[in-house]
Amino acid sequence: MKKRDIILLSVTATFLIFALVSVIIGFEPGKSLLKNFWEYIKFVLTIMPAVFLLIGLFNVWVKKETVIKHMGHNSGIKGYVLAFILAFAVVGGLFAALPISKQLYDKGSRLSVVMTYLGASCVCRVPMTLFEASLLGWEFTAIRFLVSLPLIVLSSIFMEKFFGKNSGIPETVVNT
Amino acid sequence: MTVLYITCAVLYIASLIADPKKTWRAAKSGIKMLLKILPQFLVIILVMAFVIYIFPPEKIVELLSKSGDWVNMLVASIIGSIIVIPGFIVYPLAGILKDIGVGYAVLASFTTTLMLVGVLTYPLEKQYYGAKLTIVRNVASYFIALAVSIVVGLLMGGLF
C-alpha cells in the first residue's frame, strides 16, 4: 500500500472513531456528520462495485483495436456520438464516469471523445434531468442541453489540441 | 440500480460460459481498480459530509435569496462548483429555491456548476487525469455553466 493511501485511510478511520464516540455520548454535530457520511457512502457502496466489475469485463473482453476504430483518432463524428450515447446510458455521475472514461482512454479512445463523454455524463444524468424538467420545465432543460453540449464538444477538442501530447495523464492500467 | 446489478450478473454469466479464466481476470482487475481509488473516495465523501454540515440547504437558500440576480448567479455558481451534493439534497433544494422566487438564471448556474464543476472531487479526478487536465477541464466547465445561465436568463427571464 502506498503511503498516501495509508494517510487517507487513517483520516477515515479517525473520523469513524470520532463518529462512534459521538453516537455513544450523544454529541449532536458528530451524529449528523455521520448521517451525511452514511448517505453518501451508501451510494458508493451500492453502485461502485457493479460499475467497477463492468469496467473489468470491458477491460478483458474489448480489444484495443475496437475502441481505437470507434472512438480513436480516425473515428470522426462517430466517436462523439458514441460518447453521448454512453453518457446518457450510464448511471452514477462523475464517480462512475471517471473510471469508465479512463478505461476508454487507456484502450485507445481519443482524448477529445473521452472528455466529451465525461462532460456529457455530468450534464445528461437521466434521473437528475427528469427531475429538473418536471420542476423547472422542459424549456429550461432544452436550453441547458443545447448550450452546454456543443460547448463541451468544443472545449474537449480544445483540450485535446493543447494537452493531447504531454498531458501528464497518470497510468492506471491494471495488469492481471 | 437493480438494472445495473442485473446487467452485471447477466454479462458475468455470459462471460463465465465463454471463458472462465478471462472472467476471473475481469473481476480481479475491476476490484483492483476499485480498491486503488477507495481511500481517496472515502476521504472525499468525508469532506462532503463536512461541507453539507457547514452549508446545510437552509443556508444555501438564505445565501441565494439576498442580492441582485447577477450577484446571485455568481454566488450560485461558486457554491455549485465547490460542493458536490447527491440527488436527495439537490432535488428538494431546487424546489425550495424556485418557490421563494429565485430566478431561472440563478437556478441554471447552481444546477449546472453542481453537475459539471467539482472542486471537492479534484483529488480524485487528478488521480485519473493529472493536475493540468483536471484544472483545464473544470475551468472550461465553469465557463460553460456561466454561458448556460446567461442564455437561460436571456430566454426565460431573470437577468435582463
Write up this protein.
With 176 residues, chain A is mainly alpha-helical. The two termini of chain A are 17 Å apart. Chain A is globular and about 60 Å long. The longest helix of chain A is centred in the first third of the chain and has 34 residues, at 28-61. Chain A has helices at 3-25, 28-61, 64-71, 77-89, 93-106, 111-123, 126-136, 138-163. In chain A, helix 1 runs antiparallel to helix 2 (28-61), helix 2 packs parallel to helix 5 (93-106) and helix 6 (111-123) packs antiparallel against helix 8 (138-163). Chain A folds into 2 domains: 1-47, no CATH class; 62-176, no CATH class. With 160 residues, chain B is an all-alpha fold. Chain B has a domain at 55-156. Chain B contains 7 helices and no strands. Chain B has helices at residues 2-18, 20-54, 57-64, 69-82, 87-99, 104-116, 122-156. In chain B, helix 4 (69-82) runs parallel beside helix 6. Classes of the chains: A mainly alpha (176), B mainly alpha (160).
Brief account:
Chain A is built from 8 helices and no strands. Chain A is an all-alpha fold and 176 residues long.
Enumerate how many helices of chain A there are, as a single number.
8
The 3D shape of chain B can be described as: elongated
What does the overall shape of chain A look like?
A: globular
Give the largest interface.
A-B, 73 and 73 residues
Unreliable residue stretches of chain A? none
- Taking pLDDT < 50 over at least 5 consecutive residues as the criterion, the unreliable ranges of chain B are none
Q: Give the tally of β-strands of chain A.
A: 0
Spatial extent as radius of gyration of chain A: 20 Å
End-to-end CA span of chain B? 42 Å
Specify the helix fraction band of chain A. Answer: over 70%
Overall number of strands of chain B = 0
Question: Which strand-content bin applies to the residues of chain B?
Answer: under 5%
Per DSSP, what share of the residues of chain A sits in E-state strands of 2 or more residues?
under 5%
Question: Secondary-structure element order of chain A, as H and E?
Answer: HHHHHHHH
Number of self-contained structural domains of chain A: 2
Q: What's the story with the biggest beta sheet of chain B?
A: none
**Mean model confidence by pLDDT of chain A:** 87
Compute the CA-based radius of gyration of chain B: 20 Å
